[in-house]
Design a protein that fits this description.
61 residues; flat; mainly alpha
């Protein structure tokens, strides 16, 4: 490990270059990144509110 990298970060660094993603997966990742750049996403707070879970989680934060 280098510096303050976690074990998980080191593992991901090692496998990142060796794992070949299929075409459909690559397209989905590209689309998801574009959606995020365009602000097309929901925050955790929005999802909790939409599902009616906001009140439950207020007591556990």
């Amino acid at each position: 490990m280098y510096g303050k990298e976690t074990c998980e970060e080191v593992i991901w660094d090692l496998i990142e270059g060796t794992v070949e993603l299929e075409g459909e997966t690559k397209k989905n990742i590209t689309q998801a990144r574009q959606d995020i750049r365009e602000g097309k996403y929901y925050t955790l707070e929005e999802v909790k509110r939409e599902l009616g879970l906001w009140f439950t989680f207020m007591f556990y934060q």
